[in-house]
Design goal:
163 residues, mainly alpha, 5 helices
């Protein structure tokens, strides 16, 4: 049986993924309201300790993806979504979600590059980015992955694993 917090998390990532896939945008209405609902649920079910777990998870989620945003490899909506996911999952649950999201993101990126016939180009550009060379993740010809859907996938897989 799913808890109200897990149901809220599923609703959050489902709505965010739908928005990202359709519009390539995750509105603040989704991310901010999701984080607020998470905080309220944790406070209701866990008191001050629950609220603190929620806030810690939100801050950790924002911090993890902020570096990717600064580097141009991720949109602000993805960062805020991961913060809201952290608010639901708490810091410990967020670590598992991060691992599954990273694995699914890598698989999705390779699939996207293969689909567009640009795997070699994408791997070379990634190597340049990692080496700190002149390539940019925000180049006009860069393939863009709707990462909100990947975050949703990683979150849902983690919920299945934790059952």
């Amino acid at each position: 049986m799913l808890t109200p917090i897990q149901i809220g998390l599923i609703v959050l990532v489902s709505v965010a993924a739908w928005s990202d896939l359709r519009t390539r945008h995750i509105p603040n209405l989704i991310t901010v309201s999701g984080a607020v609902v998470a905080l309220l649920l944790h406070a209701f079910y866990g008191g001050i300790g629950g609220a603190m777990q929620s806030l810690t998870g939100a801050v950790l989620g924002l911090a993890i993806f902020f570096a990717f945003y600064v580097g141009g490899g991720m949109g602000a909506g993805d960062v805020k979504l991961f913060g809201a996911v952290g608010a639901f999952a708490g810091p410990h649950g967020l670590v598992l979600i991060f691992v599954f999201t990273g694995l699914l993101g890598g698989i999705a990126a390779v699939a996207l590059a293969l689909w567009h016939g640009r795997l070699g180009h994408t791997l070379a550009r990634t190597a340049q980015l990692v080496a700190g060379m002149r390539a940019s993740a925000t180049a006009p010809d860069a393939l863009r992955l709707p990462y909100g859907a990947v975050i949703a996938g990683g979150t849902l897989v983690s919920l299945l694993v934790l059952k």
